[in-house]
Amino acid sequence: MELYKSIDSITSREDLARFISLLRIDLQNNKAQWENPTLERYLEAMEAWVIDMDGYYQNRQEPKPEQPSWKTVADILYASSMYE
Predict the structure, then answer these.
(1) For the chain, what is the HEC assignment?
(2) For residue 41, pLDDT beyond 60
(3) CB 77 within 8 A of CB 34
(4) Would you say the pTM of this structure is higher than 0.70?
């Protein structure tokens, strides 16, 4: 399964922990494919994505979360790996 496809099934803290493990493994195995492979770049992208995240949910025709869920955290973590 593609990493991003697993995000939709995240509903619990345990699901998020498994996703974070998969994200870490993906970074180890595919570092060259990550737009933001360093902690500094990753955190910078995370900040920018959180500021702009309303557009992501609009593009997916999903309501923006008023209260973040475990899935929202996974969306943020995954998007930060590639957000420019």
Answers:
(1) CCHHHHHHHCCCHHHHHHHHHHHHHHHHHHHHHCCCCCHHHHHHHHHHHHHHHHHHHHHCCCCCCCCCCHHHHHHHHHHHCCCC
(2) yes
(3) no
(4) yes
Report which residue type is found at 1: M
CA distances from 20 to 3, 31, 63, 71, 74 (A): 10, 15, 24, 12, 8
Q: Quote the CA–CA distance of 60 and 62 in Å, as a whole number.
A: 5
User: Which among 2, 1, 13 is positioned nearest to 71, based on CA atoms?
Assistant: 13
